[in-house]
Amino acid sequence: MPGECSNLPMTTLRFRTLLALLAGFAATPLLAQSTYDQVDPMIGTGGEGHTFPGAVAPFGMVQFSPDTDTTCVLRACYSHAAGYRYEDPTIQGFSLTHFSGAGHSDLGDVLMMPVAGDTVPFEPGDAGKPGTGYRSRYDHAAEVARPGYYAVALKDRGVRAELTAGTRIGVARYRPTAGALPMHLLLDLRSSLYNYPGKVLWSSIRLRPDGIVTGCRQTRGWAPDRNLCFAIRFSVPLTGHAFVSTETDVAYKGFQGPGRGSDAVAERAGRALVARFDFGTTDRPIEVTSAISSVDEAGAIANLLSETGDFDAIAARTATAWHAALDVLRIDAPAPMQRSVATALYHSLLAPSVAGDVDGRYRGPDNQVHRANGYTFRSTFSLWDTFRAEHPLLTLVQPATTTRDIVRSLIASREHSPDGILPVWQFQGRETWTMIGYHAAPVIADAYLKGIRGFDADAALAAMVASATYAPYAGLGEYMARGYVPIDREPEAASKTVEYAYDDWTIARLARAMGRADVAATFAKRSENWRNSFDAKTGFIRARKSDGTFRVPFDPTAINYGSDYTEGNAWQYSWFVPQDQASLVRALGGDAATVAKLDAMFDFDTSKLDYSHAEDIAGLIGQYIHGNEPSHHVAYLYNYAGAPWRTQARLTQIVGSQYRATPDGLSGNDDLGQMSAWLVFTALGFYPVTPGSLEYVIGRPFVNRAVLTLPNGRTLTVISDDLDDRHPYVGKVTLNGVPVTRAYLRHDEIMAGGELRFVMQAAPNTTWATRPADRPYSSSSAR
Ligand SMILES: *[C@@H]1O[C@H](CO)[C@@H](O)[C@H](O)[C@H]1NC(C)=O
């Protein structure tokens, strides 16, 4: 037997070698390895990434994941925005909702903790004192995380916990690890992420005659007045239960949950509820299936019942869904890069998540219940981040219906918005007003211009215009009156001015495509407004006061909240003219001056600067800050100044320093997929600097081969000849054998599929794609 066994790997190895050889010679590459197998959900769970390791289906409504500490206060919460932190020694429990990589937080709803044994603590204990309360120590060595599946041994609770998730459910399997013991499940409705005092406004729980437990909770957190209901079903009958309120009950009139139900076996309401469920003494695993609904308990029950099967069946179904979603991109690259890119694709397929119930009902920004007809309502819109690369990536790796549903959800949200405008940062249908701009506009325009249909284009354009002309919104009235946002009237005025101007350009683009010349002309004119914030003397985008002067004193390195810029300074924000980088190059004094300024940004000596007060500032290369979004397109801008090889060199520098296939492998918050989408594009050799332009700017690839199966069924094969550390520059590029001598690819070229080949070399090709006619889209020189 041992002999036979040891033979197997040899055979496998020979077979692999043969495959690799075949792949090298075949016209269409054979990429045997599944992308699914390369995903490591632990990447980003430490350091600055703020990702979670738990179980989630593609774009799933439930993100079932461990929380290591929800008892944080103030600044300590930031590091726990995803509930789990790799560095933490204990797990407090498993809750149903999490953001992937957000810089602010909420959620962590319906926290559950299994317990084997006679003692069931009702308090979580002290995160700094492992062994206290119901929290439990665990070892990373006994932890398993893959798409749609998570497992861990809870050492202090005597339970091995496994989690999986369907689109609208989370399923847990809890197995006692020390033989037959009394098994319990604790449900703590007091717990949530960013759980400052007074956050839980009201909660309720009831045990129904059919054994299903339901309840609702109303919280006032990042989202104001958020309502979430749940339904939980156990695989074995309960032998007992206890519903406990840990504070004196107070009446709360605003509660929107259900009133008392006459059919309940037991029920309790209050602000601080804990429940214990008992299953008797057993050595058998117990399965717990949970669902949520932002509508009501009936919605949660319907969601619970909509996905059938036991733990293994759900896990298998979700694994199949992940295989399908991830294997549209097969990659062949050195092992760490392959894991980083595969995981990046995984992280880019988590949001915008499903937020509507199985019957179509959802809660909108007006806090009322609506019904989606013919599409799935989605939310979790981190638009300031995701308009850049995340949404453009979805148009290449997901069926068009995904983006169609996103656009329909945006339009519907606008229709239910008390302010009559598109979402800014919305989750579970509720608006948080976080970050700046009206970046739903580029998402919708990019979708329409790429030919994605199935939504009301007139309503979409109307929604975009409404958002862009809503005077009460963040200095917009002043912006419309003056052509810039004045800093003495509105904070972060420089950033707002340039971001509004870009969004305006996307409205003009959509209007022109729809034959609405009047709207197009108005917004094309507005898209020039970035010039009003450009200071020719210093070469920086700066904030102007209402008297027309630039605000002084001016320090381009200063980063302060509420200052002239949003989460950044003049160095990062002075490059934000994606609609017309050519004019910016001219304004800066031409190609050489632009290249010099870009170099000055990357090579800036920041050793004497302290940005530790700004939470989002991480991943510095000089004044280039990869850990936050304003910098994301900047390395690609050398292409607009006739120096593509400088872009290639900077990308080598960024990818080499900002992404690792380790828990602390993301240099900044993943921001609902944006950091990850950046890597997926960059690894393939191109990036959407200007969503809405229908172009991708060529960088340099980081994969030896990749096969992208496009939504239209065609495949794009990316091949990088001679790619290694000693060959970091692009010598030439061909598309289906034809030389590409310009610095961009068109969307229709990508969608037509075929073979995109990069020939890599040691020295820069300083003549490739350098002529003005070779440069990517700019509105002032539009082809
Ligand atoms: C460099 O680019 C130019 C212009 O596209 C091309 O003609 C030349 O062959 C390239 N050089 C190499 C070594 O690939």
Topology readout:
Elements: H1 2-25, H2 35-38, E1 55-56, E2 63-67, H3 75-78, E3 90-91, E4 93-95, E5 111-116, E6 136-137, E7 144-146, E8 149-154, E9 159-165, E10 169-176, E11 181-188, E12 200-207, E13 213-219, E14 226-234, E15 240-245, E16 266-270, E17 273-282, E18 286-293, H4 297-306, H5 311-326, E19 329-332, H6 335-347, E20 353-354, E21 361-363, E22 369-371, E23 378-379, E24 381-382, H7 383-386, H8 390-397, H9 400-416, E25 425-427, E26 430-431, H10 440-449, H11 457-468, H12 476-482, H13 493-513, H14 517-526, E27 534-535, E28 540-541, H15 570-573, H16 581-587, H17 591-602, E29 620-621, E30 624-625, H18 644-658, H19 674-684, E31 686-687, E32 695-698, E33 705-709, E34 715-721, E35 729-735, E36 738-739, E37 744-746, H20 747-752, E38 754-761
Parallel strand pairs: 34-38
Antiparallel strand pairs: 1-2, 2-4, 3-6, 5-11, 7-8, 8-9, 9-10, 10-18, 11-17, 12-13, 12-16, 13-14, 14-18, 15-17, 19-33, 20-23, 21-22, 24-25, 25-26, 27-28, 29-30, 31-32, 32-37, 33-34, 35-36, 35-38
The structure holds 2-acetamido-2-deoxy-beta-D-glucopyranose (NAG).
